[in-house]
Amino acid sequence: MVPVKQAVAEFLGQKRIAVTGVSRSGSDHGANVVYQRLKERGYEVFPINPHAEEVEGDRAYADLTSVEGGVDAVVIGTSPAHAEETVRECADLGIRRVWMHRGPGRGSVSGEATRYGREHGMTVIDGGCPCMFAPTADTGHKVMHFLGIGHMPRQV
């Protein structure tokens, strides 16, 4: 286990990040917010949605395997029921950094996915949002982090 601040710094130190669960219909959907923020901050970001050819005006990918050149990290923004499948795909592809997004409510966090990832040598951040931390942070997300919304773990 490592302190979450270290895990966050390592995660956000990557440049090619996929975001699963990016919606075709809502730019205010949690995964869409993360996708857009990472993109605005200069990351090379890949939206993953098996039911869309395009999301937020960008080409969408059916799965992580479809991203040419691979990715360094993955934000899971789907329901918890799909998180373990995504973590297994990450393990198969050698992706070692995963963040299960969580705002108010359960978010994308799955205990089974967390266990599987950690058992396979992955750093799994199981809660919170990348937008709570520099260089992707904004005031609203900083306040949510301060108030404990998103259930950010202390160690991962």
Automatic annotation (TrEMBL):
Gene3D superfamilies: NAD(P)-binding Rossmann-like Domain (3.40.50.720). Residues 11-102 form the CoA-binding domain. InterPro entries: CoA-bd (IPR003781), NAD(P)-bd_dom_sf (IPR036291). It comes from the Bacteria. PANTHER family: COA-BINDING DOMAIN-CONTAINING PROTEIN, CYTOPLASMIC PROTEIN-RELATED. This is CoA-binding protein. It comes from Actinomycetospora straminea.
